[in-house]
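Let's practice the habit of predicting before peeking. Look at the sequence and jot down your guess about where helices and strands might fall. Then scroll down.
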Amino acid sequence: MKVVVAENCGFCPGVKNAIRMAEKVLGRHRKVSREEKNVYSLGPIIHNSDVVQRLAKTGLKTVESIRQIPQLPAGGTVLIRSHGAAPNQIAELEEKGINIVDATCVLVKRVQRIAGQLDRAGYKVVVIGDENHPEVQAVVGSATDVIVLADESDLHKLPLNGKLGIVCQTTQSQEHFSRMLGAIGKHGFSELKVINTLCKEAIKRQESAVQLCKQVDIMFVLGGLESANTRKLAELCKKYNSQTFHLQNWSEFDKNTIFGKNKTLPKIAGVTAGASTPEWIIAEFVENLTKIK
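Done guessing? Here is the structure:
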């Protein structure tokens, strides 16, 4: 069986930067006194459990809220994950006197900044995305009374004849963003300002994945189940190839899946991975997949 890997997949620059910063902080803190070694991540540094577990072994403690972080001694550090944090969370950390290392993706920072600018300019800020995703929650915290639209079923949240400022969760697809803009336009507004905040790296991965999945018999999308960009890859691939499977790593692979109903081995298998999936997971998966007879 031939295995083909998508041209664009795996770690994006934002994730690489977050991991690099985490490793640098952890390395620095291993050299200081025991009391100063506390390094916390406010939420998982990225949405990949394998990477989070590896960093945990070197001392990174992941917490879900600031309340879980004790009053740290001098030298204690909190890492802001790649998805960012709301301004009020940053302020709360500063009030506690905690050292902050900001590993927020620069593109996510841009969405937060734009949301604040639109708000101050008198626009009702609208975010197209998942309201439960940490990136969106951080953007919501960057302006007042933000509206989040997941799909057309949320259009009722919009004010009639409103002055709307639209941004988008960075990992959404161009297709979904365009469809939602059309639906918002039909809903009615007095003024509409749209700023494209989609991540070009995410778009590259989506385009490569779709192109590949159309050419293979079976498609595997690797990455954390909590990763929005990985789920989007799987969703897009499933649309064009029903034999698409989202797995976190090789340990989740079921050999029965690849043989299908007719019990024959596919001729070509495609592999892609989300922006938070490390290279070693991709390499291990491809190596093991090629060994199947």
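How did you do? The first strand starts at residue 2 and ends at 5.
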